[in-house]
Queue: 2 jobs
Job 1
Amino acid sequence: MAAGVARTDSLAADFPPSFTWGVSTAAYQIEGAAREGGRGPSIWDVFSQTPGKVARGDTGDVACDHYHRWREDLELLRELGVGAYRFSVAWPRWQPSGRGEVNPAGRDFYERLVDGLLDIGVAPWLCLYHWDLPQALQAQGGWSRRDSVEWFGDYAASVMGVLGDRVEHVAVLNEPNVVGLLGHLLGVHAPGLTDLAAYVAATHHLNLATGDTLARLRAEHAGWRLGTILNLQPVLAESDDEPDAAAATLLDAVWNGNHLEPLVSGRYPPATEAMMAPVVEEGDARRIRQPLDWFGLNLYSQLRVAADPASLVGLRLVDPPEAVETTAMGWEVAPEALSRQLVEAAARLGDVPIVVTENGAAYRDRPGPDLEVDDALRTRYLERHVREVQAARERGVDVRGYFVWSLLDNFEWHEGYAKRFGLVYVDYASQQRSPKRSFRWFRELIRSGCIPASDAVR
Ligand code: IFM
């Protein structure tokens, strides 16, 4: 039995040995070395260096210094026992201005990382885009411009041309809905736009980039397991009244439907079809709707919404009832949302296997001596969510894997470093890493295939 774990043995495992357990990270959130190794500037460098955009003026300049400490981080993965590690390639580290020659130092970095993962028996799951568009491409219009579809496809083919002999699992995009909404309409993420036309165009081009890249990579090599990742959340209407129900339908279409529906049916949801129509061209639907080998679901919470005629879009988000637990992000803890969303996504996706590619929580971790963190709340959050994965599987949903967000505390976008999601505590002053209680809980789950009670792991 793993040290510090009290567990009754001889129970039948909750998950089969073939189930993939992993952790996810993203380049800008952990790598640092923003101006090293030939890396070009990304939209997140520019955004985070703009006063007032990120809490406390935090930037990804150093982050977890993973660019230099990746060996130490692989050691953590080995100790955790995961079968898979999902990371993203920074486009501006690969191609500093987004097009043309590959940056040799960037290529070497990802080759070493992939080789290092394979050496310790951890499957690399490579995500091609986790939000760090090269600034040089933003200067030409970024995702709002239709050319972005081709720029991205060329970059993707270049990455896979080098790493594709060692990487099998590829995610095209991570959470395009966040890129579109938070980056182009609400302005709280890079590139910081508050422009409905930019949102509509970027959303459609992200969908087109997904479809075209899936088709292009599939044509290049049939052995790659190609997927893409959406952040989906159930949307609850504040009441049964018609205006609140309509607000929920609209938010569901914008948050969930605007990416999931084109992927599965080629169409935008009825509630957003007219809004999206100006950018849709003949043949786009067919290009977007491509077969998937797997679908990645990121889920943290659920949304509550009410009609609000006074607001610009006619709706407002509603806080959960007071008794409902929330995380340090203010997000409602709603484990049942995960099984519900898995069932709903499966109904739309047909027989495409689903992988939970992100799930986790930020809490106000209080390190004790030696940076020891007893993150009981996160451990319990994870336990409750993994039980919902099990419940969804029992209801017939083909869930093949579960990845915790995240391995390390890291740069949480406009919230900066104060919001900690890691299984491993990072002391940013010393860059010392310290596994938390949740790390030991997850390690025991991976080892045994049985869900340990969160309070049984110390
Ligand atoms: O940190 C992010 C990640 O980059 C994308 N999904 C949600 C996480 C928590 O906000």
Note: Residues 26, 29, 175, 231, 298, 358, 405, 412, 421 surround 5-hydroxymethyl-3,4-dihydroxypiperidine (CB under 6 Å).
Job 2
Amino acid sequence: MRILVTGGAGYIGSVITEELVAGGHQVIVFDNLAKGHRDAVVEDAELVQGDVLDGEALRRTLRERGIEAVVHMAADSLVGDSVTDPGRYYRTNVVGGLSLLAAMRAESVNRLVFSSTAAVYGEPLKVPIEEDDPTSPTNPYGETKLAFERALIWHERAHGLRHVSLRYFNAAGASARCGERHDPETHLIPLVLQAALGEAREVVVFGDDYPTRDGTCVRDYIHVLDLARAHVIALEALARGGAPHRVYNVGCGGEGYTVREVIDAAQRITGQAIPVRLGPRRPGDPAVLVAGSARIERELGLRPRHQDLAAIIGSSFRWMLAARRAAA
Ligand code: UDP
């Protein structure tokens, strides 16, 4: 298949691109490089630098590259940031998404895999969260992802757009080649590892008065390689002519891990004591987000291969060490 990956120079997008190329697909990455990295795109994929708000550039790319399906990753994706700058999240995630849909329609491309998020659920009423549970986002990030999911459903009815929305839980870990590289970094696992490497003074724990086993937030960390595999499988299902639209959680399920458990695991793996300071809650953070992942296993056959938190954190740590060696 010839596949366009918007946001394919970012952390998750670069691993998806890697997996698709390894599976024999032809990949064109469309990325404005605002947060992505040119060198994160594997050699066998083509990079087109462009913004999803630029409908003309999208149309040209779809047409000239003969694109058959799209993975839409390009987004603003930070919970805290979205609370302080909601306008940017609506512009990038909703307006940008609609710009892509218009371009796809104009060029008769009608298969899409959308990177959605567990943040669409908000504070869950029960755990694990199932796909049909109520959606009530607690921050603009989740709100804008949900708005676009809903836009997809109307586009399917009106124009026959076939799509899968993948609601990611917490992507973590690294492939041998691609890992998490944000500036500034806000995600827990890379921050904890930076502290272990002595690059940060301490880790600030955002609240320890949540109704969880140790008072810190519980998240469901899924290895980025498993997450990438979910996209490949979803694209293949759409190509086979499966259901016209479907929503799937992508997480490991189980009990999830608290912030303190992540820090403890990182201390064991790195052999370093990690200084911790307690800070206030981060606005918009639900206490617990853990996936019910039965649907994607039953319907698409996806079962995570790398569920162990220590293995996930270990892959990030190895990648960070290699990246620092290469830069030295
Ligand atoms: N977190 C934290 N300190 C940090 C960064 C994150 O305590 O410096 C917590 C955050 O409140 C959340 C969890 O770690 O409960 C995972 O946060 P992250 O930003 O990695 O992912 P998110 O859940 O926002 O997608």
Note: The longest strand covers residues 111-117.
